[in-house]
Fold these 2 entries.
Entry 1:
Amino acid sequence: MAPLLDVAGVAKRFGAVTALSDGALRVGTGEIHALLGANGSGKSTLCKIIAGAVARDAGVLQLHGADAVLKHPRDAERLGVGLFYQELSLVPQLTVADNIFLGHERTAPLGFLSARRKRADVTALISRFAPVLGDGFSPDVPVARLAADQRQIVEILKVLSRKPKLIIFDEATAALDRRQVAIFFDVLRELRAEGVSSIFISHRMDEIFAVSDRITVMRNGVTVASFATADTDQDAVVHAMVGDAPLRERIEHPRPANAAPARITLTSGTSRRLHGVSLSVGAGEILGLGGLQGQGQSVLLQGLFGAAPFTNGTIAIDGKPVPVRSPAAAVRHGVAYVSGDRGRDAALQGRSIFENIANATLVREKRRVFWPRQLKPRFEEALKQLNTKYASLDAPIGSLSGGNQQKVFIARWLATGAKVLLLDDPAKGVDLGAKADFFSLARGLAAEGAGIVFYASDDAELLSVCDRILVFNSGRITAELTGSTLTSFHLTKAAYGEAA
Amino acid sequence: MSPLLRFMTSRTWLVALAALLVLVAINWYLQPNLMTPRVVRSNLSVFLPVALVAIGQTYVILAGDIDLSVGAIVSLVNVIVVSLIASFGGDVPGILGAMAIGVGVGIACGLVNGFLVAVLRLQSIVSTFATGIVFGALALLVMPTAGGSVPSVYWRSYGGTLGGVPVIYWIYGVSLLMVAFIAARPFFKHLAAVGGHRAASFQTGLPTTRIRIGAYALCGLFSAFAALCLTGETASGDPLLGQALALSSILAVVVGGTALAGGRGSAFGSILGAIVVGTISNVVFFARPPFEYQTLIEGAITLAALAGGVLVARGRRTQ
Ligand SMILES: Nc1ncnc2c1ncn2[C@@H]1O[C@H](COP(=O)(O)OP(=O)(O)OP(=O)(O)O)[C@@H](O)[C@H]1O
Ligand SMILES: [Mg+2]
């Protein structure tokens, strides 16, 4: 029997950039198929071609054993293909329910919108994820008001609501925490039992091995290997991903002395979702924020950065109390903030890579006038440290792959030389190699005296890089992990509270 | 977020309604006969053309574009209808035929705009500015100077009553029905989606090009309605008739709570917005400030009405 999807020899160029030169993928019916590759290796491009959102230059694409003509995403949808877009395909102004049913509005006789059917259907869809949706989620809330993980869940529900035969999840778990991922995986497995196939893209190895039946690996726009998950291991897959180039070794570092002076101190920080949180980060220290998604970690970071100021509490930087009522004030005091939520918080969409990096530098250095030629070498250096793949600094930010965009936002702050670095799930969508580079860079900045506060939705990231982890629950610090308690076991136990 | 606040922020036209109540109160104080049926009717008939154009403009703005050619469309339809009625001989079937052709011309102008903006992907602000010049020039070709006249049956019917209710109230009623009809269709959600995030709408599988063309066609349609009303009001043809309508319709749309950037708003709000903008002029007129301050005061009040909407929209974002 012909496979459900058979793609071979697919090529795609964007101007001078070759995104794909020989993409291939074969997915059987009722299979969970993982697609792996470093940032910029062409995964998203291949998926968009399969979903009809990007036209291929060359290659064969067969669905259900027949050549598929895909001129528009609608054509792919008719053939039973659904795509979870890495950058999400949600309209911020529309409500959750309207986004989920966009293009498939629930109607009454004569084609009028039916609020009753919409509500019934959306409630049924949401119920699956209901325990892990977090604060402020409702079908009637505009998507613009949701947190990153909530928006990802909406995009998941949107794809599922179309009942495709082949679903592509392009980094659908990037902002999800453990509990959310577990439910998502259950859904994937149920779909598989019903004969629905999924293509699953992720940079988290443990997820790939937990859920997939087969693995296909891409490198530099070429499909280089395909494995049955049961017959392979992590080393073989990583080797296929990076080729002969060795991954950079993790740099072990001495834990900083406890007596280091505090870089930033917060005393009883309080806001709508945070209840009297106090913490202090020393120079040279990387402090992790752990716990389930949305327990106050991001709110805390945004408070420290002045983006969502605390209603109560004091912030001191280098021992001096400073009012931080706005990001501009924070930046002038040497605080930097890297968000993984690039769509909403960080990107100047449609602007060049240069402008996207420069804005932080300009605020930090209070520059009004500048010469691009002076700044460019600095920016290029910062991008190179993270192995960023880009055509030129003048290319628009949207032309980069998801992970490479994220590297630009990290570089933006590396270029400012900050004293306090606030990292809000910064490595979301960044591949293994660059992640290691980024963490060793962060470690380097700490060694030079920066104090770093780090939140990640992926526990493995926290454990690999932090000196100390504060575990959050419902806007409070419920545990502090140091030394021998810095383990996955303790972190999980603390995150779930005593019940787990 | 409290239910009250949610109710308010999901109905951005409430600000326009509040502004309207305040303005009407002031107007009533300044002009004690304001609430007599005759004055209400004459005011509403003055506001009607702007309200109609603003309805059409709403759909275009909601979809993330703008139409600066609406005034020229109104002029063009007006002179074509007046000329056609004359050449058809002025009997009732001739009048109805000319009106139908006028409506067709309005839709055709909208389709041209939609084609330029959505198919050729020219910037809407520039290309509708240019088509506005072209439509205006065509109007001058059809009728080089203001003049001509329509048979009395046309303007008498427009100014008259039907079943005891003034015809212009029927027109308001039918317009409201059309607005409600469109708002209850999936198409309305698609307009907001395309205006809110075009790339996402395309990826979702929406026919974004067709949707944007549809918005312009609706705008052309409502502009033609406005032209037919103005023809009944002035009873003659004027190639410069619609000149000020583009900007006043956009103003009405924004005062009515529709985001200029697209993605959020309602045509109902725009009708309120048109009435607010008209009432502002009335208030200034009846307050009799020194002549040289009139425009300044009118501008300041308009700004205040706009700011009210913006502040509510901002409260909504930080919530
Ligand atoms: N619209 C575009 N214009 C120009 N270049 C593009 C465009 N889209 C993708 N590219 C380029 O094509 C290459 C492949 O990008 P793609 O998004 O497919 O990578 P990816 O494997 O999904 O990476 P990631 O893991 O970072 O999401 C990248 O070098 C990217 O810069
Ligand atoms: Mg990608």
Entry 2:
Amino acid sequence: MSMYNYVAYPNKIIEIIRFNILNRGIPIHASKWTLFGWTDGIDVPREGEWLLFTGFMYQLTPYIEVLVDKLSRIKNGFLLTLGSMVNKVFDISRFISTPPRERIMEVHDVLRNIYRLLVASGYRVWYDEAIDTYPGTLLYEFGLDAELKYYGERLYHRLKSRGVDRIITVDPHTTYILKKVYPSIVPNYDVKVLSYLELIDPSTLCRVESELVYAIHDPCYYARGIGLYQGTREALASVGVRVVEPRFSGTNTYCCGGPIESLSPTFSAEIGRRRLDMLLRTGADKIIVMCPICMANLRRASSSDNIIDISQLLKRANTI
Amino acid sequence: MRDLTDLRREILRDVLKCSYCAMCEWVCPTLDVGNGNRIYGPRGRINLIVSYFREGSENGVLKESIYTCLICMACTQQCPAGINIAEDIRKFRTFLTQ
Ligand code: SF4
Ligand code: SF4
């Protein structure tokens, strides 16, 4: 065996994910309730000014958590070869992933809260299940640029057929793809894309009455990708959250390790442990994340319930 | 679809600007975890890309190096030569899936 063994079967894993994205529009299977259940019980308009585009990253993360756990135990390449063949006929990710219901409900709460924050900030937000889709992030990360261009063009066509010209995103990866990558590869791409964190009005937020100290973890694709890090600190400060900075923050942030979770689960986990350690060394009680991938990878490393999404701290002051 | 020869030329033109100064390495999370073995760092990665393009051989070390990269862009903003390190590594992945 080679001394280099952190990456076991990249081409087989990439092939399964590539096939699923291109043919099923999603890298791994998730139920309809998981993807769209966040709108249950709230009346989200079907028309408006700003399209809320979840890109399914929050919703898929609970499934990825289960999958990564399984992948890290596969020691036999033959299983993956067989898997990639069977996958063409039957989505094998249906077999492996059944995340706990509470985890999906947590994700639904995050999305619902983001929607409410935007409405409270005065945006005319709308949502349509038929438009929201996976943004193609893994095609990008795997360097499959020909496929990404094809996928991006299809996505753009779908947006334009509904007259979409303004999009609000909820996670850094979707934001980066729609805001920075597609404009450079999709012809005549013309959509204004902003993360909800760039839009919420701090004066609509409720004060956080807490003695706790929070360490902030910037996601790479917000801080370095679109230069978003100051605004998040200002929003937190305005509601009274006490924030401390870890070693490596802002544009020098240190990746959570999540992006290689499928190609190298052990490496990914070790990076998560090191980042968690840096964050805890600030002496903070809790850690703030703003990306579902960071959430999953840091939680995987953590033994206690100390990692929260920024949207779980930011609550609207008034009622809608 | 863009021709792979053009892509090869584009990546090579960029990575050949490397002067081995190592300014990119201290920020790299994977170099940290790989016990300082340089194949897990930005400088090692782009120079493995150079060797692959020049010598053409693909072995386990190259995949190990390229697929452990997080494409986190921490290295890119350190490089005094202005090499788009993370983007070059990302684009290079396409050669490993041919
Ligand atoms: S993009 Fe890759 S090489 Fe650069 S710092 Fe991140 S992990 Fe290291
Ligand atoms: S900082 Fe730039 S020039 Fe220096 S070793 Fe890294 S890639 Fe090469």
